[in-house]
Structures are given as C-alpha cells and as structure tokens.
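task queued by scheduler; priority normal; single chain, no ligands, no partner chains; default sampling; output format set to structure tokens
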Amino acid sequence: QVQLVESGGGLVQAGESLRLSCVASGQSFRWYAMGWFRQAPGKEREFVTAISRGGGTTYYADSVKGRFTISRDNAKNTVYLRMNSLKPEDTAVYYCAARASYLSSSDYYTRSDEYNYWGQGTQVTVSS
C-alpha cells in the first residue's frame, strides 16, 4: 500500500514557476514508477508527465514539454514537478500517481488506468 501526498500548489501569474512535491509513504518507493496528471474544471483528467522507477526515463505531454520537469529522489520518497513559464491553461488540480514496476527500471506509464495509487491533488491556478 502506498499513500501519496502532494504539496506546492498555489496561485501564480502567467510566466512564473512552481514546484510540486509528492511524498510517498512506505519503504518501497524505489520500486514504483510515478506520474503526474491534472484535471481542469469541466475536463477529463489528463496525463502530464511520467518517470521510471530508476529515474532515468521520463516522458512529457506535448503541452508541457520544454516547460515542465519531473524528477525523483528515492532517498526521500519524493517525486517533483518543476513547472516553468506557466500559462493560464495550466490551471488545474494536479495529482501524482504511482504503480509498481518490478520488471524494468526504465518503464514509464502514461494512462491513468495504469496507476494503482493516487494522491489527493493540489490546486494550481495561473492568472493572466
């Protein structure tokens, strides 16, 4: 069982930056591939970025590529999402997600149904 707690959301102006954190409980974090998703009002949850359990492989949605960076610190059971050059269309609740990835240290996952564990979400609001 893994519990995820996100933090770092807030209200910023367009062009500014934020860093989200997601802390996982338990001692098995190093076996979990991680992802970030977001959901804007009236829209479906969408994939943002993912990272393999080893941290060596990352993948980004086209809408955030070049602006967002995912990273992880397995010693701290934490995955981060650095968001630069924020736009009003980035406004959403951001969720981190985890799934066990025992077979490969380089696999990542982009579909929400591939993840078993979810955090409660943190609100990011970008004003124009």
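post-processing summary
- The chain is about 0% helix and 50% strand.
- The radius of gyration is 14 Å.
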